[in-house]
Structure formats: C-alpha cells, structure tokens
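=== RUN LOG ===
request id: a7f3
mode: sequence -> structure
chains: 1
length: 790
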Amino acid sequence: MLDEATMERQSRSLIASNEELKVLKTEAPDGIGIRKNAEKNMAQMEARYRGLLEAAPDGMVMVNPRGEIVRLNVQAEKQFGYPPGELVGQNVKNIIPEGFEQRLIDDNARTAAGVRAQRIDTGAELSGRRKDGSEFPIEIMLSPQESSDGVQVTAAVRDVTERKTAEEQLTKMEDKYLGLLEATPDAMVVVNPTGDMVLLNVQAEKQFGYPPDELLGQKVESIIPEGFAERLIADDHRTAAEALAQQIGTGIELIGRRKDGSRFPIEIMLSPLKGDDGVMVTAAIRDISLRKNTEQHLEQMEGKYRGLLEAAPDAMVVVNSRGSIVLLNVQAERQFGYRRDELVGQKVKSIIPKGFAERLIADGTRTAAQALTQQIGTGLELTGRRKDGTEFPIEIMLSPLESSEGILVTAAIRDITERKRVENALRDNEERFRLIVSNIKDYVNIMLDTEGNIVSWNQGAERIKGYRAEEIIGQHFSRFYTPEDLSSGLPSFELQQAEKNGSFEGEGWRVRKDGSRFLASVVITALRDEGGPLRGFGKITRDITDKRKAEELLMKTMVELKRSNDELEQFAYVASHDLQEPLRMVASYTQLLGQRYQGRLDSDADEFIAFAVDGCNRMQRLIKDLLSYSRSGENIGALQPISGETVLKEALANLRITVEEAGAVVTHDPLPVVMTDETQLVQVFQNLISNAIKYRSAEVPHVNVSAQRNGGHEWIFSVRDNGMGIDPQYFEKIFVLFQRLHGRSEFEGTGIGLAMCKKIVDRLGGRIWVDSEPAKGSTFFFALPGGEIA
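=== RESULT ===
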C-alpha cells in the first residue's frame, strides 16, 4: 500500500483532471472548429482522468448531488466486493451507510456552498459495507467540486482494518507500558520537546521529594538543573533533529535536585523518540549516592584491584539488538578459542548456535519490545561452540536492557563441562544407590514422615522384620518396639532427639511380625528442607544379634588368648631361667674336657669337643636372648618425658666396646623429648645400632640417628647406616622371631633382636619399618606417638 503522501498526490492529480474537464465543458466557445478542438481536448482529458482513476492504489468513488455513484475504479469494486458496473447509479449509502451523504448532499436546508463548507476533513474515519453485508473501517479523503449539476464529490477510500488492529494493539501496549513504568524500581520521567515533564512514576516523586502530580508541567531543570535540557531540547540555535543528534548517552551521570534543594548524584538512561510532536524523551533516573561512595572507595583501591574484571572466572559477552557481539573479556576469548578482534562484530550464533539469538533478537515478525519479553531466564543451560568446532555445555546468565540502540544483552557464560560430568556421575550414583537401597537385604532402610509413620520399605526391611510393603506402609514405626519400650515412650524420645540434634543412635530389642525379638542397631536422621522445616526422618536398622554373640565369643576368646599368652611367657621365662644352670654345667665340663685332653686324643675328638663347646655357647646366647624377648615390652609403667639424646647416650655406653672394635662412627642430629619408657627405648636404640655395626660393608661403619615430626602427631626416629643393605623382599621377614638372612658362619646372632624391637615399639603404640637396597645401606624407622614435650 502506498503512503499517505503518495496517495494525496495522486488524489490531487485526479481532482485537477476533473476540474479541467469541467472547465472544458462549461467554457467551450461557440463555433464548430473551436468546439471540435474542445471536444478533442476534452476526450484527451477524459482518457487521462480515467487512467489516473484506475491507477490509484485506493478505491476512488465519484458521487453526484443526489448521492448516486456516477463513477468508480476497479479498486473500489474489489474493496466493496461488487462486480464491474454494478455500483454505478446506486446510492452511496449502500457502501458507506453513515457520515458521507448526510454532509455532502445538497437538500432543501442547505445550498451547494453550504454543503461544500461542511465537507468532512481529509482522512475522516467511517465504516464501509461490502456487498455481502460485512462492515469494515475505512478512511476517506474527499474533494467536493461545485459544477453545473451541483456539488459532486470525488472520494479516495482506504481500508484501514490493519491500521485499526495495530492501533488497538498499541493501546494495549501503552497500558502495559504505564504498568511497567510504575512497577520499575527507578524513577521514570517523560519530557516533551519544550522541556516540560508530562509523565512520571511514583518513584520519581519519592526520589525528588514532591507530592503526587506537583511535578507535571514543570520544567525538567527543576529536578535536573544541568546536562539534560541543554542537550535534548531544541532552542533558537538548534533544530529538533540537531537536539536528537546530541542526546546524552545511556547511563550518563548528572546531579539531581530535590524539592528541599538538596542535591544528590544520579544516573540517567535516556530513550529519545522522534514523533509528530517532536522529540519525546523517557528518562530512567537512579539515585547513585551509595554507588558513588563505593566508587570513591574503589578508586582508592584501584591499583590493588586493577584487572579484576578481566580476571573474572566467567566469560562475559555483550550482544546488540542485531545479534552481533560488541564486547567480551579475556575469559570469553579463552573459553571459545578466539582472539578478541575475531569475535567482535560476529553474530552470537557463531559461539552459541541455538537458544540465545532466537529469543533475544527482534526479527521481521517481532518488535524489539516483543523480543525483550521473550528473554531467556537466568541460569539457562545451552551449548557453546569453540572456534575449532567442538561443542561444550554452558550456563548463561542474561541481563537484557532496552536502549536507544535496541536491546543490549550482557551474558555471563560459564563452562559447565565439569559440572555436567559430576551431575551425570551423581545421577548414575543416585541410580546405583537407589538400586542398592531397594535390594539391600542386611539393613532396614526406611523413610518416616514427621509423625513417625512409615512411607517407604526396602527388601532388607521385609527380610529382617517380616512385613511386606503393602502391609506396613502407613503404619507407625513404634509397632516394632517391645512393650517395655512402648510404655517408657522410647519411640517418641528417639524422634525428638533426632529432630533436636540432627540424628539419634542407639541399640535395643525390636519385635518382628512373628513376635520374635532381635537386637537392633538404630540410626535415625532428621531430614529438612533448605529453609529448615522438618520433612521427615530416615531410619536405618541393622540386626546385630549375631554380631553381639560373635563379639561376646571374641571377648571370651581374647581373654582365653591373653591367659594362654601370659602362661606361655611365664613358661618361656621359667624355662629359659631353669635351663641356664644345667646348660652352664654342661658348658663348663665341656670346656674343661677341651682344656685337659686337647691334643691327647685324636683330631676328631678335639673337633667334637669344639663343636660341643660352641653349641653350648650358642644355646646360652639363645636362652639369654629368649629371656630378654619374653621380658621386652613388659613392666612398662606410666610413660614419662624422656630425652632422646639421653637414651641414645646410654645405648652407646652399652655398645662402647663394640663401637671401638669396629672403628664405627656414630653421629646424631638433635633428638626430641618424648613420652616413653626409658629402658625400652634404650633397648631399641642398642639393637638397631648394634645391627648397623654388625652387618657392615667393607667401608668404615657410619651410623646416624635423627628424628622429625610427622604432622605434629608422632615423632619418626631413623637409624641410617652405610652397611651391606637388605633386599626389599625381606623387609617383613627380618622382624619375625628367629628369622635370619645370613648363616651362623657369617654373623653371630639368634634372629631375635629386630623381633624384640618390633615388640617394644608396638607396646609403646608405635610402628617400625625399614628402607634399604643391597650394597647401599639401610635406614630403620620407628614412630612413637605424641608431640615434643620440651
């Protein structure tokens, strides 16, 4: 459809042609030649007029003084639904029932001049009626001419159905706009081209301290003295277009003035619109006093926090109304694999293919306002696409703003790949947990409502308590308790304790469906919503009847085992003590035989006597070591603060001859004071250092003793040597009683020393281990509990 200016030009052309025809008809002079000329000219003008009439985009209708249609174009016939020629001669009321004929037709009460003076203004809105009787809104532009036949009217008729529909929608949008205006938290002020405030909301009145309606009609300078009116209002030096071109940018900071004269900083966001009445400006005004104070504080810390925005963990992208990216941070570059200059100006679809642009960008079927109402909610999960084409899950949080440039959207984009992985894993775990809980048979795992009624039942509950789900769900959980517990109010007490403390744990006898009893271990957990209200209880019950019997049996066995161990230790002590006397006698007489008869018997006798003497000596050492082992770890009294260096000195004093004979070098780092038994610790040091010297390499033995704290909970002592080392496969074996790695011909010993160390350290609450490699020396570690005392 053509615009009104074009239609107006064509209508006036038709009217001018009509006037020329009338002049030719009324002013044609006499004379055949002249008349012929006039007729020819009139025919040409008639053809021209008819051509213009048919070419008009709107319906064109000519009506005579009697209200009869004398001429119309094809557009009029189509518009009113009549076939060609049918409307000619009909009364104009047939197609325009009211408002046309009443004003333009000359009757007895009006002259033609009077009718002409009362013509409808151009663009009058009436109702048209089609041949099928349906009515529709029209706009007519009329041109009445006074002729010899009276007042004839040429009417350009336009169907304005679409425009009326749009106007109704616009009215609805205006109502919605007023509602939004009042609902917005910021002050909203609308200013006309002369700088008068024509509309404002309650927030504006509160912000500037004026009662309702007092600001209407006042100049905007009364509340914003400088910076607003000077730029947006056209004066003698600037046209409206120039004022519009000099509008203030979105978010400019100015100074507001309240009714009491006090001033405060404001931020205004302007939306100027050029209309028929000039430049109208809607201003959103925000009191930024608090923000300015904050900004002053932030300015003082600017050096410390420079670059904080770029260091934000999320990608930040700003998109304009055309869907183009206008701003982004370094995280966005990294997240999507682009350089900043590569992304700026690109469509947002290049990084978020679906779900963003489709909703936030106005296209041919939606206005900017409609697009704004369809914005995506905060925290929507979409899919992002990197420069290399790979896609990954994202969560976007959007902040759309309708500005003079259209809708600008700031999007915080978070890569949630890891979160989705965790969610999937959690979902899988929940499913597995659900299957486990539903199929578990050794535990009663049920849910209770806030009153203690059963709302869920698993297979374990059915097996242990004997009820099927359909029998028990909805029943109170107290039915499992003994009469004694019911009379004492134990079920209610347990729920109260769980609600008060978060959970309740206890043991007691419970009753099955068949009346039999079992010993139960019970845990009741209170379940609450995020806000805190109780929503029920989770109850886990385990049948520990067999466990309790097993514990009692184990306790009895442990008592018997302790008694047996005590008897064995006593036997070892007595046996080793009683064996020493006869063994000493055998050894003495064997040595006496050797001394008296050596060389007097044959060589075999001398060898046999030597074997007997050596066997007695080894047996004496074994009995001595066995006696020491049986005594080790015993008689440990109350632990006392003991200096590690004092203990080491005592151990070295006991080993003085061994150290001197081997030429060994024994050093130590500072050693702590620990809570221990002095005699036992001396024995540990003495055995470890003695072994380090005994199992030396070809080099001079070097032994170092040190200690360090392990997290503050224990002290770890180490005895490090440069000896022959130990194969890792024997690390456990060497701490077992009588276990040796070398033959007696290589090294003396009974294989009891390290077993004794382990027994002592275990009794002191510690642990012992070794780290070594063959030919690279060994380091024996033992840890004792407790921190440094002094």
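=== NOTES ===
DSSP finds 26 helices and 26 strands in the chain.
The radius of gyration is 54 Å.
=== END ===
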